[in-house]
Structure formats: structure tokens, C-alpha cells
Amino acid sequence: MTIPDSSAPRSVASPAASASGQPPRAVRSGGAPVPESGVLAPGVRDLRLDFFRGLALLCIFIDHIPGNRIADYTIRVIGLSDASELFIFISGYAAGLVYMSAIAREGLLFSSLRVWRRVWQLYVAHLFLFVIFTAEVAWTSMKFDNPMYVEEMNIASFLNEPHIAILEALLLKFKPVYMDILPLYIVLLAFFPLALWLIRRSRLLALGLSVGLYAAARYYHLNLPAYPEDAEWYFNPLAWQLLFVIGAILGASTRGFANSGAEFPIPRNRWLLGAAIAYALFGFAMQFLWEHDLITRVFPHGSEAFIFPTDKTNLSGWRLSNLLALAYITAYFLRADSPMLRWRAFHPLIICGQHSLHIFCLGVFLSFAGLIVLVELGDSLAYQLLVNGTGIAIMIGAAALLAWYRAKERMPRKPSDAPARPADIASTALGGGSAE
Amino acid sequence: MTHFHRSRRGPSRKAVAVLLGCLIVASLPAARAAEESPPVELAKFCAVPDDVVPNGFLKHAREAYRAGKPLRIVAFGTSSSAGTGAANRAEAYPARLQADLQERFAIPVEVVNKSVGGQSARQMASRLEDDVVSLEPSLVIWQTGTVDSVGNLQLEDFGRALSQGVEMLEKEGIDVIFMNMQYSRRIELLVNYGPYVDMMNAVATQSGAVLFDRLEMMRHWAGEGRLDFDNMPRAERASRAAKLHECIALQLGDMIEKAVRR
Known about the structure:
The structure holds 2 protein chains of 2 kinds. In chain A, 62% of the residues lie in helices and 0% in strands. Chain A is mostly helical. Chain A starts with a helix and ends in a 7-residue tail after the last helix. Chain B has a single domain, classed as Rossmann fold, CATH 3.40.50.1110. Chain B contains 14 helices and 5 strands. In chain B, α6 (93-104) packs across α14 and α10 runs parallel beside α12. Chains A and B meet through α4, α5, α6 and α16 of A and α1, α9, α11, α12 and α14 of B.
């Protein structure tokens, strides 16, 4: 099975390029590549992407257990943005990085097909989670039929007309609670070949169109249709595409910039850094005051309304800029070749980030399961810690198994194995190859 | 994706509230004990932490009280205010609140229940003119949020309905208490209240409406094992629902009395 995300965070053309006869550009442009400090050699994974994606996945798991006290300490405490922004930004960056170099090797059509195959995987994963959710709703409504909660249990009303619910789920219009980020990712990725094509033409044009769509969506309240009627996409793809496209442009540019010795397509500028830090501190302060209900004491009556509650559905500018500020600060201080990324303590996060689709789906399922445990056994702090700890351990364990399995699968075979097994042929025919 | 649980208050506020509470209790020990309007046992049973106790100004209700005019209140909610799950409408908190307040005040008190199940905040807002303003109350208890979050209805639209509603009511000389959702751990499995709770908090803060944090109160009662609706024998359903409405009425009565006698 091909999981492009594992191949995504390569800073430069993957070994496939050299294997297929086309040398990496750094070599072609003269001499052996001697990367400056902070710049990765061609074909080396940028572990920062894996690390932060892994972090986002664990935070999403923790945040999705309602009433979880540990959720007060996830990444969202550090500012106005949270793990969702982080996940989408990094996904955009990784997609820009890997598919832009893939286009150079394979052309737009082939790369588009690879993107769409990924979309298909995500779509199937989403439907699988939907089935789990439906089972859970059925179970809950059997256990719980108190007329006191008649309106609340309306959530199970789709069970009365499953034929419609299934249709709406297939159309991605019906998205049960906490299952809205995968549909967003699916839509963003489905239109990604178009973005890639634009980015290749002109980054400025791509950014301009993306900003225009974002502004129009916010100004005219445009969102995709949802089910039931009057519902909306919790993550408005028309607004969130901006974050994905910004990530993709940066990712797509990284390759070219890495070849010229620069690490990051945005200049390392002290003033820019100062502004980013100032904004991040402001975001942290506002989030802290809001979280602790102190905001009305600090600000004159009603003035916090400019910021809170931040519009997550339409990705408010406060949230967007907070994520970009944090990303800049991180990229400024944490170099791609930082030895910190090789610390054993960070290894679990990195392997989670390297198998993001599996770990994401597992996390969503574990949030459901964790809450069921808390409901049935009680939600004392001890149980909460147990549920969080067990969930994280399962996610890391699964990632380790996947990593081990993949490494074993990739091991060079003895010459006696020469006639490839059908599975290998199939995998190659599907567009596998070394990028996977 | 991430879901806020901002409805839970931070510790700092709690500390201040506890301190204030101690000061108040210390300064008038005799007066409190003498009043004793609700039976002490019930008050103890229904107690909530200080940071969940609703608090705020009710300007128009206070004026009515001071002028000695009858106090008319409209309970404006959905099923849980209409009394679904309780034995009947008379068991629901609005009817109990009227009895409770009538014991506290010498002026005539009337609580009119205008609750209709299944309506969104937007649908309720369009009903305000006919069902609330026309009755000329000085206070409305607006219970909402469940239908919108269950239906995943537009958050922005929800917020706008609330703030426009409060603005209109304020113009008509009517105070507003917002009451949010009912707590249940199982429901949390299926519905994400977070953004809607936050929105109600924000609108209340902006507009000066009082927030009656039913969700947190019920979370507290459930956590203490006093009123747990997730794990209970079927036979106890009616009696627990009655107790819940009693507690909500008591908390509302305390809040309204405090604000009006300020």
C-alpha cells in the first residue's frame, strides 16, 4: 500500500530521481552537494515535519475526548491556533514538497493520479470511521433513552433514515462529530493538482487566487452544503484552503531554495522574527486570559469580542496568523538538521508523523473508545490519565509496528528472489516505487 | 476539530470567588441563617462550586421589584424547559421557580412558560416578539444551544440570533438570562457543545446578559454522584428528573433574588 505521506517530507528529489537516471538538481548544478548548516542533503527526510505532524496527531486524539482534563495542556494553550491548523499546514507543506518534485520527474498527469489515489485512501478511511461512529451511536442510543434528553438524542435521528444518511455520508455532506477534519483534507487534496498547476505557473498567482477565495468565502459566507439541512462544514474548505496552499507554496519552494543553499523559502530576518514573536506572545496571552475567564477583567467591556470566540469554521485571521507566526519562529530556531530531532525521546512522535493516515484514524477511534471507557467506568483523574496514556501508547506502538513492517518490506532481497512476487508488481504498477 | 471546554472556569477566578464568599459570609452570619427560605437540605444538595454560581445584574427586574410592581418572568426554552422527561409541565423548573420566588418576595411573581421543543436559536428569536415582548415581562430566561449543536447548525448564525435577540429585548426593557445545555457524559460522545457554549459565553459577556451555566452545574452534580443521569436504574428516572428541576429552580431563585435585592 502506498502512503505518500511517508515519502512526503523529503527535502529534495527522492532517490527515485537518481535511480531513474535524472540526477538531483544540486548535483547537476555543479559539484557534489555540500549543504550549508541547517540544510538537508538531497533525499534526507525533514524530520521537523514528521515531528510536528506526530505532535498534532497526539493532540488531536487528546482534544477529542470530551471533558478530558489533559486537553487543557495540549498545543492549543500556546496560542489562538491549535492542532487542526498545524495538521493542515504541515500536510500542505509536505504535499507541496513531494508532489512538486514528483511533477518534475513524472509530469502533471501522473502526479495528479498519485494525489487522487491518496484521496481515495483518505475517503475509504473516512467511510470506515463513519461506520464505527454509526455503531457507536446505535449502541449509545440503546443504552440511553431518557426522555429528558429527547433533543440531544436527535443526533441519532439519522438511524431512522439510514438510506439517506449513507448517501449523505458518501457525498461527504454528513459528518458526525469530530469527524470533520478528514473530509476537509480530502477536499483540499482532491483540488490539489489544480493548485500544483497554478503554483508551477506562478506562486504569486496561486497565492492571490487562494487569498481571493478565502476573502470571498468569509465575506459572502460561502461554505459547502452539509447534511442535515442548515448544517455546515465545521471546517469550511473554501477558507481553510488558504492555509493548505500557503503550506504547499512553501513546501514547493523549499526544494529550489534548498538547492541554492537556503533552508527555508522565507528570509531569516530579525525584524520578521520580532514581529512573529510579538504576535505569538499576544496570541498566548489572549488564549490564556480566555481560557481562565480573565478576559473581561483585563479588557474593557465587550472589546474581546473582536477576537473571541475565534471563528474556527472560517479560519479567522487571528488563528491563521498565529499559526504562521509559530511556524516562522520554529523554522527560524529549529534547523532541519538539528540534532535535537534525533533525540530518542522524540522518536515516538516522529514515527507517528511518518504514518499519519493510519495514526490519525486510529486516534479518532481511540478517542471514541476512550470516552466510552470514561463514561462506563467513571472519569476520575486516575482513569483520565489511564485512558490518555493507554491511547498514546497504542498510537505509538502501532506506528512502531508500521515502521518496522515497512522497513522489513523494503529490505533488499537476495538475488535468488529475483522473480518479483505478484504483490511487488502490483505495488509498482500502482505507482509505488521508491517514493513509497 | 479541537474542541474547547472553556465552560470550565480557571482556578484564579475560583480563588477570588471563594475569598469573596468567605468575606460575605463572615460579615453577615446571622442574617443568612435567619432567612432560610429554601430548606437547608435541598440547598446543600443543589450546591455548586462558587465559580459556577450564576451572577450578574438584572436591571429591569430590580426596577420592577423596587417599584413594587409584579415580577413577570418568561421561561423561553426548548424541551428541557417545557418539561419533557419530568412528569409534567408543572414539575419543570419554570413552575417551581414561580413557587420559589413567590416565597422569597412579597410582590406577586409570575413565571410564564413559553417553551417549545426542537427549536433553534434562530427560530426562537423570530418568536421573541409574539411570545415574550407582548407579555411585557421584566426578565426572560432564554434556554437554548442544544438544538443548534445537535443539528451542527451555523455557529455564526447562532451567535447572531442570540445577540440580536438580547439587543431587541434590552430595548424593550427586558433582562436576559441565558441557560445552556444539559450535561450528560454519553451525549458528549455524540455532540460537540464546545463552540456553542463558547459562543453563548461570548454573547453574554458582550451584551451584559447573565449566563446560567446549566451544563457545568449538571456536570458538577453528576461528578459528585448526586444527580447522575448516565448510570441509573430506570425506576429512578422520574424522581431524579424532578430533583434536577428543583435544583435548577433553586439556583435560579438564588441568583434572581441576589440580583434584585442588590
